[in-house]
Write a structure and sequence with these properties.
The chain folds into 3 domains: about 240 residues, FAD/NAD(P)-binding domain (3-Layer(bba) Sandwich); about 80 residues; about 70 residues, Helicase, Ruva Protein, domain 3 (Orthogonal Bundle). About 35% of the residues lie in helices and about 25% in strands. The protein has a 6-stranded antiparallel beta barrel with strand order 14-17-16-15-18-19. The chain has a 5-stranded parallel β-sheet with strand order 8-3-2-12-21, with helices on one face. The protein has a 4-stranded mixed β-sheet with strand order 1-11-10-9. It is elongated, with a radius of gyration of 25 Å.
């Protein structure tokens, strides 16, 4: 019979932090991971670079978490961005701070972060067994007694579920944890993709595939009413639109599409100029370069790869000279530069979603300990819970902080 003080299900960042904090508190800790390798999703985060965390202040951090960032205040108070950075640096990881307050490993390899976490937990005698799929959490009279994995029963008084959500299922995040939580009585808020690329109607996005836009403003319109906006970088793809600001706004879009609402994304290509100032800029350039073809004048306003598509949408002959552009055509140019609109037809699947929205409802979890309010000795950490955040390292910090608090709590109960 194998008996452990704490058993952690899942060897991602939440699970490893939970295991390490429990072991540091003196516990005999076992981590069970169903995949043959630990931290497979961590390896692909930040396009393989791993956006470790963000340097935002706690209040700002909390405001970027949905649907209830305040739930994390205690977890962040116990273990926050400075703490994970210190832990990794102590394990030899060099870290850089980049724009947007984002921290990355200096050599841009997510494997360095994973190796550091594994070195840390193994150095404090955490046992990790890969290839173990948990089939059942054993509960008697409202108390954790153990769990069953690969047909084998493991005994413990504390189980921490850190199985991840449903995004990138090839890495092992296929939703198993939701069923484990549901079978012991927990409520699962509807699970859906978040931080996910959007699909758009028509062929315009496809024609612009690969074009990246910086310093633009994207606005979400739902049934012709303004819903939200963000400023920054985006990219066109073969199916629609993606990039940081689109991913951030996608949480709203996914929910609105599921409610069968009509959703449009309007791109302001010149957010630094209002309509009047932009019109003055257009008049000035058309006068100054009046003998040039409009397709060449457009190089002052747009990336060259966008110009043919733009002129086609405007219905303007690319060979027309600047001084021949009418006031009506100039008005259309101005309008399109400020309102480059796309109708959203859908979103990509969990296979391309960075994070999962929905999950174990937080009112059933103690924010002070991460322990279940329904089952004594059962704890939650990371993406499994109904908590998701914007891009920028926020979601990984949720994993570290909730994992750390769950591990410490499991050993102090």
């Amino acid at each position: 019979m194998e008996i452990f003080d704490v058993i952690v299900v899942g060897a991602g960042p939440a699970g490893l932090l939970a295991a390490g904090s429990a072991a540091e508190a003196g516990g005999r800790v076992l981590v069970l991971e169903k995949m043959r390798q630990e931290g497979r999703k961590l390896l692909i985060t930040g396009k393989g670079r791993c956006n470790i965390t963000n340097d935002a202040e706690m209040g700002d951090f909390i405001s970027r978490v949905y649907p209830n960032g305040r739930f994390l205040r205690t977890a962040f108070s116990h273990f926050f961005s400075k703490d994970i950075l210190e832990l990794l640096r102590n394990q030899g990881v060099e870290i850089n701070l980049e724009r947007g307050g984002r921290y990355f490993p200096s050599n841009n390899k997510s494997s360095d972060v994973l190796e550091a976490l594994l070195k840390w937990v193994k150095g404090i005698k955490v046992e990790i067994r890969c290839g173990y799929r948990v089939e059942k959490v054993i509960v008697e009279n409202g108390l954790i007694r153990g769990l069953q994995a690969n047909g084998q029963v493991f005994h413990t008084k504390s189980v921490i579920l850190a199985t991840g959500g449903k995004s990138y299922p090839a890495t092992g995040s296929n939703g198993d944890g939701y069923e484990l939580a549901r079978t012991v009585g927990h409520t699962i808020e509807k699970v859906r993709p978040s931080l996910v690329p959007l699909e758009t109607e028509g062929k315009v996005a496809q024609q612009l595939q690969g074009v990246t836009l910086k310093n633009v403003r994207a606005t979400i319109w739902v049934n012709d009413k303004k819903r939200s906006e963000d400023f920054g970088e985006m990219i066109f793809t073969h199916f629609g639109i993606s990039g940081p600001i689109i991913l951030t706004l996608s949480r709203i879009v996914v929910d609105e599409l599921q409610s069968k609402n009509r959703v449009e994304v309007s791109i302001d290509l010149k957010p630094a100029l209002d309509e009047q100032k932009l019109d003055m800029r257009l008049i000035r350039d058309l006068d100054e370069y009046g003998k040039k073809m409009i397709s060449n004048i457009f190089r002052n306003w747009l990336p060259s790869s966008m110009i043919p598509v733009f002129l086609e949408l405007l219905g303007i002959d690319p060979n027309k000279e600047g001084h021949q552009v009418s006031s009506k055509e100039r008005k259309r140019i101005r309008h399109l530069l400020k309102n480059f609109n796309f109708t959203v037809s859908g979103h990509r699947s969990f296979k391309e979603a960075i994070i999962t929205a929905g999950g174990v409802t937080t009112p059933e979890i103690s924010p002070k300990t991460m322990e279940s309010k329904l089952v004594s000795g059962l704890y939650f950490a990371g993406e499994l819970m109904d908590l998701d955040a914007e891009t920028g390292g926020y979601n990984l910090q949720i994993a570290y902080s909730t994992g750390w608090l769950a591990g410490k709590s499991a050993m102090s109960e």
